[in-house]
Amino acid sequence: MAATLMNRAISRTETVGAFRLSLNLLRNFSAPAAAASPSTENPSSDPIKPKRRKKKNLIEVAQFLPNWGIGYHMAKAHWNGVSYEITKINLYKDGRHGKAWGIVHKDGLRAAEAPKKISGVHKRCWKYIPNLSKTTPATTNSAPAAEVQAA
Fold it and tell me: What is one cellular component GO term in this UniProt entry (predicted)?
């Protein structure tokens, strides 16, 4: 009787062992597929966000203007009605940093006669103001010519 009980216990452990082995094989084969599917879903489920463009400092804005922006108006993005007419720029060797001087303008009119050093030149919030750009020599010369013709 003991022998039959022993045979039953052995056969049960063999079937349980075989059952565990088959489950382990299923887990091993299915685990990479299950792990691969979430990783492939992440890029498709998250919309690709465009990179935010880095704002420019005053020197980076001025470098694309003629004569490094001398005579042009620039302002910080959060300023309302205030701008600087650039009169002088002193560049450092790297070409992206430096010092700048300008005349303050409020609502398009000069607020000061003498240029002063502009603070915050390296902060990344500067913009070019196109409607207050410097006047061309042709427009200043055309006004006296009109007066001469009228006289």
Answer: mitochondrion
Which residues are registered as beta bridge partners of 92?
A: none
pLDDT tens-digit readout, 92-106:
998 889 999 999 999
Within the chain, which residues score under 70 in pLDDT?
1-2, 5-16, 18, 21, 23, 25-26, 31-46, 133-151
Q: How would you classify residue 74: left for phi > 0, otherwise alpha for psi between -120 and 50, otherwise beta?
A: beta
Task: Give dist(CA 37, CA 24) in Å, integer.
Answer: 20
Helix (H, G, I), strand (E, B) or coil at 126: strand
Amino acid at the residue 121: V
In our burial notation (b when 16+ CB lie closer than 10 A, e otherwise), range 69-108 reads bbbbbbbbeeeeeebbbbeebeeeeeeeebebbbbbbeee
